[in-house]
Design goal:
Elements: H1 3-27, E1 32-36, E2 53-55, E3 61-65, E4 70-74, E5 82-86, E6 103-105, E7 111-115, E8 120-124, E9 132-136, E10 150-155, E11 161-165, E12 170-174, E13 182-186, E14 200-205, E15 211-215, E16 220-225, E17 230-236, E18 250-255, E19 261-265, E20 270-274, E21 282-286, E22 303-305, E23 311-315, E24 320-324, E25 332-335, E26 350-355, E27 361-365, E28 370-375, E29 378-386, E30 400-405, E31 411-415, E32 420-424, E33 432-436, E34 452-455, E35 461-465, E36 470-474, E37 482-486, E38 503-505, E39 511-515, E40 518-523, E41 528-534, E42 551-553, E43 559-563, E44 568-572, E45 580-584, E46 598-603, E47 608-613, E48 618-623, H2 628-636
Antiparallel strand pairs: 1-48, 2-3, 3-4, 4-5, 6-7, 7-8, 8-9, 10-11, 11-12, 12-13, 14-15, 15-16, 16-17, 18-19, 19-20, 20-21, 22-23, 23-24, 24-25, 26-27, 27-28, 28-29, 30-31, 31-32, 32-33, 34-35, 35-36, 36-37, 38-39, 39-40, 40-41, 42-43, 43-44, 44-45, 46-47, 47-48
């Protein structure tokens, strides 16, 4: 193509975009100022967070390409996938998917998909891209005809469907042709009926159709004994660890023809093989630390096996599928195109955003294990923390979630997977641990999956220690924290938090925290707590929220909330418990007036609102005060 043709095509494309954005502006305001997407070209060889994997009778590989919202089929020997389900954008139509996790193939080579964020199970016959709903699809809920973020599925020889209905804390079965489920394990049954202190993610049936279940939270694999309705621990169950009889967040399970069990020991980055009756596993893939070399894995999720013992592993955090022949220690990549963590690769679930005093935008690019900095002169992000593969070294991060900038643009990172808070001075790539970093735990010098961090005017550090259900305060001189609210606090304000995920602090050093479906304001000096947004129950009314994540305050005290599951940003004026939608709120989607599970937000001094639009893998900027034409011009200049 000649250069003049290219320019002409680009001009025409921008004209079309202008028409589209103008039409969006006429329908809804304010519109997005511009998007930061950090994109690379995507094709059917690339994967994004692959989770489920299955094989059919012909040796074809099926992969749940989770954050591309599609299922790909790879023929033997081919590295280019064929879309067999989804791939038509994120949505809930019959030819669409929304973040699919688990997949399975039945004896007739029919495909079943756990369409996780649509809360349904779809069945696809060969050659059809239109799925039929066989379970769920009646909204998010806990009734026997509903599901709540189903993670994995299995199907028996006689067509009974098993579903790991994770956020309902249950395993539920559906007989062929029935949309009414039967609760087998968990809430509503006689097996594990109590509080959800377990996390049943993955399931599998062996040749005898015995059911096996991965309890990721308790690092155990159970076998379900249907004769006496009991669960038997067959692997793990000895605390989190990397010994031969321990597991760390296990997920996928598969069996060979000798009934040997293979388990993806996800956070140990390895695959373990358990012979029948033996609780001591043998490492058959990975186990050389977290990485992307041929003998390494990174957060593997699911696993499949051929008759000859060849393993196929969804190497999730490496965005690839690895093939391990029997008795080999190095895998071969059969799907997925590797890319550098430091290049212009796509965002992978951005979770937090912050604005520096210089006007630079910082983004926690969570599943790429890095923090990027964007300036007005450079729209391609520069890595300022992490980006050297997932790890725990001073120049590495592990699923960073929250970020905070002080007045000197020192960067504080909630390095969640490493259970620590890292501080990065400007122009340095090695962080200093300022809280946690002593392993996962509940001691005063430990953290457990922290998600947010802020500093007050005296330099005290506050951490949302999410999995410990508490807020910790660290002074500049002490690495031992004090619990100011939440679990086991001394002098705490409130005794119960529900997954505190985000913090903000005002000029009076009052602390704001998201907990459950509301935002609490903690008056630390008066030892009081006030609900300033949301209610105990989730909803979409103006006085309600649904799993809010990020929060931010402007200079007049207005509170902005990323209302994550309502796909909108709400603004609450001081003293008003009814919010106003200032971004999104038009259903989930990728148009300029839509959001999809926004998590982090930030407000700058010019009333620019930034949000980490996580499922769209972009950061959106909404200018709340200027006219749309200026916004359109900046968008079109990209």
């Amino acid at each position: 193509m000649k250069k003049t043709d290219s320019v002409s095509l680009r001009s025409f494309t921008r004209f079309c975009i202008l028409l589209l954005v103008l039409s969006g502006w006429l329908c809804a305001a304010p519109d997005a100022y511009y998007s930061l997407e950090n994109k690379a070209v995507q094709d059917d060889r690339q994967l994004q967070d692959p989770k489920g994997i299955a094989l059919d009778s012909h040796g074809n590989i099926y992969i749940a390409d989770t954050h591309n919202h599609r299922i790909l089929k790879f023929l033997p020997g081919s590295t280019e996938g064929i879309v067999v389900a989804g791939g038509n954008g994120q949505g809930d139509a019959a030819n669409q998917l929304n973040t699919p996790f688990g997949i399975t193939i039945d004896q007739y080579d029919r495909l079943y998909v756990a369409d996780t964020f649509n809360h349904r199970i779809l069945k696809f016959t060969q050659g059809s891209l239109q799925g039929s709903i066989i379970a769920g699809g009646n909204g998010q809920g806990s009734a026997i005809h509903q599901l709540n973020l189903p993670y994995d599925i299995a199907i028996s020889q006689n067509g009974v469907l098993y579903v790991a209905d994770v956020f309902n804390s249950r395993i539920i079965t559906f007989s062929p042709g029935s949309t009414q489920g039967n609760i087998l394990i968990g809430k509503g049954s006689s097996v594990m009926p109590g509080s959800p202190s377990y996390f049943l993610t993955n399931i599998a049936l062996n040749a005898n159709e015995d059911l096996y279940i991965a309890d990721s939270l308790n690092n155990s694999i159970y076998k379900f004994n249907s004769s006496n309705m009991e669960l038997i621990t067959v692997a793990g169950g000895n605390g989190q660890g990397d010994a031969a009889n321990q597991l760390s967040f296990p997920k996928g399970i598969v069996f060979d023809h000798n009934n040997n069990m293979y388990v993806t020991d996800s956070e140990n980055h390895r695959i373990l093989k358990f012979e029948p009756g033996n609780s001591q596993g043998t490492t058959v893939a990975g186990g050389y630390g977290n990485g992307f070399s041929a003998n390494q894995l990174s957060d593997p999720d699911d696993i499949a096996i051929q008759a000859d013992g060849t393993l196929y592993i969804a190497d999730t955090a490496n965005n690839r599928v690895q093939k391990y022949a029997p008795d080999t220690t190095e895998g071969v990549t059969v799907a997925g195109v590797p890319h550098s963590n430091n290049g212009a690769v796509p965002f992978h679930t951005p979770s937090s955003v912050a604005v520096g005093v210089s006007g630079s935008i910082y983004v926690a690019d969570t599943h790429n294990h890095r923090v990027l900095k964007f300036t007005s002169e450079r729209m391609e992000g520069v890595v300022v923390a992490g980006g050297n593969a997932q790890g725990s070294a001073a120049d590495q991060l592990n699923n960073p979630l929250g970020i905070f900038l002080d007045s000197n643009e020192n960067l504080y990172v909630a390095d969640s997977g490493n259970h620590r808070i890292q501080k990065f001075a400007p122009d340095t790539t090695e962080g200093i641990t300022v809280a946690g970093g002593n392993g996962e735990g509940i001691a005063a010098n430990q953290l457990r999956y922290p998600r947010s961090v802020v500093l007050d005017t005296n330099g005290n550090l506050y951490v949302a220690d999410t999995a410990n259900q508490r807020i910790q305060k660290f002074t500049s001189e002490d690495r031992y924290g004090t619990t100011v609210t939440g679990h086991n606090g001394n002098g705490y304000i409130i005794t119960r938090l529900y997954d505190p995920s985000s913090l903000a602090i005002d000029r009076n050093d009052d602390l704001y925290v998201t907990t459950g479906h509301r935002v609490q304001k903690l008056l630390l000096k008066q030892s009081q707590a006030l609900t300033v947004a949301g209610t105990l129950a989730y909803g979409s009314g103006m006085d309600q929220l649904n799993k809010p994540s990020g929060i931010a305050l402007d200079h007049t005290g207005n509170l902005y909330v990323a209302d994550t599951n309502n796909h909108r940003i709400q603004k609450f004026a001081p003293g008003n418990n009814e919010g106003v939608t200032v971004a999104g709120g038009n259903g989930y989607g990728s148009m300029m007036n839509q959001l999809n599970r926004p998590i982090g937000i930030a407000i700058d001094s010019k009333q620019n609102l930034y949000t980490a639009d996580s499922e769209n893998n972009r950061v959106q900027l909404f200018h709340l005060t200027s006219s749309p034409p200026a916004a359109l011009m900046l968008y079109l200049l990209q």
